[in-house]
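Could someone model KE4 with this protein?
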Amino acid sequence: MSTNAALFERAQRSIPGGVNSPVRAFKAVGGTPRFIAKAQGAYMWDAEGRRYIDYIGSWGPMILGHGHPEVLEAVQKAALDGFSFGAPTEREVELAEEILKLVPSVEQVRLVSSGTEAAMSAIRLARGFTGRSKLIKFEGCYHGHADALLVKAGSGLATFGHPTSAGVPPEVVQHTLVLEYNNVEQIEQAFAEVGSDIACVMIEPIAGNMNFVRASVPFMKRLRELCTQHGALLVFDEVMSGFRVALGGAQSLYAEQISGFTPDLSVFGKVIGGGMPLAAFAGPAKVMAQLAPLGPVYQAGTLSGNPVATACGLATLKVIQRPGFFESLAQRTQSLVQGLVGAAQRAGVPLVGDSQGGMFGFFFADALPQHYQAVMAHGSDKFNRFFHAMLDRGVYLAPAMYEAGFVSDAHTEQDIADTVAAAAQALG
Ligand code: KE4
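Reply:
Sure, complex below.
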């Protein structure tokens, strides 16, 4: 039986860094990544046969837990009918109709294969629809790795961004403005200065890429007003929060608190594919009509709307609509966070946490951070030690302090209790 270390050593000989997505390499937390052999329900087993309670869930998709029987059956059945046709299928229409039903702001949906592809295409669509080039994003939010989004804040507020990755020419990010999350003054100033040139503002409404930070209601209300006033599209990146924090995504929560609130475009992924490659961007018909083959904004994909992936996503979306699904998931997620906070208090360690639906985060801090700089101010040493102490006790948290965590419907109260007990030992 190969050990994780042996597999990691071997993997690095044929795959850059031994992984197909950087965060999996454990660089942020140190140590040897676990090579997963199989997963079932709330658990994963690594190559050495060790079991972990899984709080990553493939970074969001596995809201039902691994290997849900109804999803598995739907995938097996679809596979027997064919993997991919490069032609339209009824199931893509069923999935699109399901998304329309669950998300009132959406009238048309385009399916793609990854969140990156969906976010990238949504930006091109917003630029095509408005005829403008500028884009605003927020520090700490991640929308996939399209060039225009690999950017950090410029020196001055209204100076446009600088690339955060090699291989991205400065001119590609010159139209991208990076502002501080939850900072009303900055969006006021940005719109005052370049409002008529802004095609869209892209935001994670509940940010899961700087652990777990909510956009405040006043901030979101003002952002919506400014976008409307200046004719910029408000794009909700709900790749992580969609169908995860609530059945209608984060936008349904803001609509409860801000009358008439709706984003202009939405980006989905993760849960809608149920663990298979599937994402989407969506919005009003008048905007989506700009897309090829109807309109001048080109976008395409060989595996878009893949018949096996849509079967997986559709089966997943059916189950999460069952009465009480989100109430029960939210309750278990809350009891996890409360358990961690309680264990930390008893150990005399400052720890705060928050959750919404099946998504959670926690910080070794005294107060919940409201933006990226505050999240990073506490350094990662405590988190990294906690991460390994929990991993050694069979609890698999996200291997980076800036990532959110996820509870699935398969996590039982006992799993939560076992996790809190492990945390009490680790924090002690
Ligand atoms: P993908 O291209 O990885 O499917 O989606 C990009 C993306 C877009 N928008 C949001 C809000 C996201 O969280 C993501 C991807 N999330 C990361 C986790 N932080 C995926 C994990 C990884 O990069 O391996």
